[in-house]
């Protein structure tokens, strides 16, 4: 099921459905305890202050996502899950996995997440107001049988969840030595930035023209690029405490 743009404020019921779909996608259908729910992010979305793209980014950059998927998994498994949760596909090859493992080692957790949600691929595939979905389970022009099989390998089914710590694709994607990233915090400057920006038109059914994105310094460039691709205009960039 592909969840389309929300109608926040005008239709809180549908907005709630979109929010629930975003949680299922980002957290791999995992049941979250009450303490793991992120009410501040939820409120920003329900009030129209975040697009779905911003919501997906905020959920995936949260401490809850870090705790569940980074601290409990190997680097390969973590990257594998990021591809699934944020781009809706499995990695194409070992080189793609290693690129993200190196990114995590060099720039940290937030930059790794932003590299998916503010990528050209994300924007072209899902836009700013659609929840990502597992898309390479469907045969498409130019796709391969291998990609289809990998998509099935990382999909636990509607009754399952992404709780397996070992990679499901190691037999398909050649493995090599990688740095130990379990429990690692972002490296470099750890402060975050709030980017206030305005879209050239209203986004979705009732997305506010004024938007905000909270990002790390290492992901600022990708964020600004994504905003400009949407025809947006930066109002201000401020450092958070």
Walk me through this protein's architecture:
42% of the residues lie in helices and 9% in strands. By secondary structure, it is mostly helical. Strands 2-1-3 form a three-stranded antiparallel beta sheet. Mean pLDDT is 74; it is low at 4-9, 138-145 and 171-190.
Structural class: mainly alpha
Helical content class: 40-55%
- Alpha plus pi helix count: 10
Which sequence of SSEs, written as H and E, runs from N to C? Answer: HHHHHHHHHEEHE
Q: Would you identify the regions where 5 or more consecutive residues have pLDDT less than 50? A: 4-9, 138-145, 171-190
Arithmetic mean of pLDDT: 74
Lateral arrangement of strands in the main beta sheet: 2-1-3
Q: What's the story with the biggest beta sheet?
A: 3 strands, antiparallel
Oligomer: single chain
Taking the alpha carbons of the first and last residues, their distance comes to 39 Å
Cα gyration radius (Å): 17 Å
The amount of beta strand, in percent, is 5-15%
- Per DSSP E runs of 2 or more residues, the count of β-strands stands at 3
Overall body shape: globular
């Amino acid at each position: 099921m592909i969840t389309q743009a929300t109608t926040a404020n005008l239709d809180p019921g549908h907005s709630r459905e979109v929010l629930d779909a975003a949680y299922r996608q980002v957290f791999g259908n995992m049941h979250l305890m009450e303490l793991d729910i992120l009410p501040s992010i939820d409120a920003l979305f329900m009030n129209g202050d975040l697009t779905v793209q911003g919501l997906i980014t905020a959920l995936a950059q949260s401490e809850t996502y870090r705790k569940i998927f980074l601290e409990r998994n190997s680097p390969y498994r973590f990257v594998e899950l990021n591809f699934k949760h944020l781009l809706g596909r499995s990695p194409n090859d070992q080189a793609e996995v290693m690129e993200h493992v190196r990114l995590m080692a060099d720039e940290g957790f937030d930059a790794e997440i932003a590299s998916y949600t503010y990528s050209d691929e994300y924007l072209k595939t899902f836009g700013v107001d659609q929840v990502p979905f597992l898309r390479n389970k469907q045969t498409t022009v130019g796709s391969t049988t291998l990609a289809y099989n990998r998509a099935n390998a990382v999909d636990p089914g509607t009754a399952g969840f992404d709780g397996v710590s070992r990679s499901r694709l190691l037999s398909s994607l050649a493995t090599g030595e990688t740095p130990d990233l379990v429990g690692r915090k972002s490296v470099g400057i750890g402060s975050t930035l709030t980017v206030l920006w305005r879209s050239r038109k209203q986004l979705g059914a009732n997305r506010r023209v004024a938007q905000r994105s909270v990002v790390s310094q290492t992901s600022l460039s990708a964020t600004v690029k994504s905003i400009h691709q949407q025809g947006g205009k930066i109002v201000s960039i401020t450092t958070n405490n």
